[in-house]
Amino acid sequence: MKVARDFTTLKECVSVWGLRENRRELPRYRVDIQGNYSVEQKGLPLIRGTCRIVDVNKEGFAVMIVNVQFHEGTTLHFQFFPGLNRIDVAGKAVYIDWEDDGYRVGIESITKKIDIMKQLLD
Known about the structure:
Elements: H1 7-17, E1 29-39, E2 47-57, E3 60-65, E4 75-80, E5 87-99, E6 102-108, H2 116-121
Antiparallel strand pairs: 1-2, 1-4, 2-3, 3-6, 4-5, 5-6
């Protein structure tokens, strides 16, 4: 499967392979897109950093972050800058796994009414 290095390519992949409703059939699109994130936790200083989206599906996406200073269940705010535009996405960390070059963090929609893929591609 092709690696999407920008949102235009990701849109093309989604249009070809589609988005399925059955959780077991959800395709994961491989992505390599840089962005920024921030975390606000009550009583703690604002955390900011850079990240890289590594895969996306209808329910969420995974990002690589070098140094994680938050826990599962934390809400993160992301900013991506395709061209002259800015895309803002919010999601909740559902897993944090150590890998060789940092932490892989799974992000899902804050509520079922907010589709992560729609936030990224609209």
